[in-house]
Amino acid sequence: MNSDSLLRAFALSMLLTISVAPAFAAPCGTGSFEAWLEDFKKEAAANGISPAAIAAGLNGVALDKSVLARDQSQKVFSQSFEEFSGRMVPPRLARGSNMLKQYGSVLGRVEQTYGVPGEMLVAIWGLETDFGVNTGKFPTIRSLATLAFDCRRSDMFKAELIDALRIVERGDLAPPEMRGAWAGEIGQTQFMPSSWIKFAVDFDGNGRRDLIKSAPDVLASTANFLASHGWQRGKDWEPGSANFAVIQQWNKSEVYAKTIGYFASQLARAP
Questions:
Q1: Active site positions, annotated
Q2: pLDDT of residue 5
Q3: Are 144 and 184 in contact (CB under 8 A)?
Q4: C-beta separation of 46 from 224 below 8 A
Q5: For residues 17 and 241, what is the distance between their CA atoms, to the nearest angstrom?
Q6: Mean pLDDT, range 233-259, rounded to an integer
Q7: N or C end: fewer C-beta atoms under 10 angstroms in the chain?
Q8: CB under 8 Å, gap of 24 or more: what pairs does 189-193 form?
């Protein structure tokens, strides 16, 4: 083989090497969102997501600039416990007491299973979404894809987007049902998709884990989250206690965690 033939053979081998090289996801924030999304679909497939779930979840998804604007303009939580709890708890106390009664049977079974009292679950439910009234209207997959494309916390939101596709794949929700807060939280107690995958349970026995429409699934899944983070059955939740530390796994803000505990204590004392 002469030198020209060697060069041609080498060039051909390089072309073959390039053509079969594995595709990696486009770097965050570079190029077009559409090109990034096509590369992400390959990454999702490499993570075991089925072609059907990828197509159902991601085809036609567009960048949401309003989500980026909200993410970039977040303000540090600055309200005191007195301010925050005074604004959040009194308007929800009567409805919370009614919810304790309305779902008393379900809450009793949930506490028997997971050890978390109904007052705690109803307090979280009320503070997160007004007992399921305000769950958010942002398309979850679009929000997560937008935040994954952005470079601020790309890896975190790419992982959440993969888990959102897993929710679709296992039949819990169809993509049009997945609407929630702008940062990807879904359901009546605002689970991120990773928490949904880990902690959502089918407590009403209909074969689906539905934290959007099924109150029994919502309450049991929230209890499962707390129990899985070390909730101690029968113990109080005063600041400094082991159970208060568990509440802070739900929300790391001390003011928010104290407000959950205060709301639960008020519900426990309600007639």
A1: 128
A2: 37
A3: yes
A4: no
A5: 59
A6: 96
A7: C
A8: 189/124, 189/125, 189/128, 189/129, 189/218, 189/221, 189/222, 190/128, 190/129, 190/135, 190/136, 191/221, 191/225, 192/160, 192/163, 193/140, 193/144, 193/160, 193/161, 193/163, 193/164, 193/166, 193/167
- Amino acid identity of 135? T
The CA radius of gyration of the chain, in Å to the nearest whole number, is 23
Written as six digits, the tokens of 115 are 């050890």
130-175 confidence digits (pLDDT tens): 999 999 999 999 999 999 999 888 999 999 999 999 999 999 999 9
Could you report the per-residue pLDDT of 127-140, keeping only the tens digit for each? 999 999 999 999 99
Only one residue has tokens 């089918």, namely 202
Comparing C-alpha atoms, which of 91, 97, 127 is closest to residue 256?
Answer: 127
- Cα distances (angstroms) measured from residue 155 to each of 25, 45, 148, 152: 11, 17, 7, 9
Q: What is the pLDDT of residue 12?
A: 38
pLDDT tens readout for residues 175-217: 999 999 999 999 999 999 999 999 999 999 999 999 999 999 9
Residue 140 in contact with residue 192, Cβ under 8 Å?
A: no
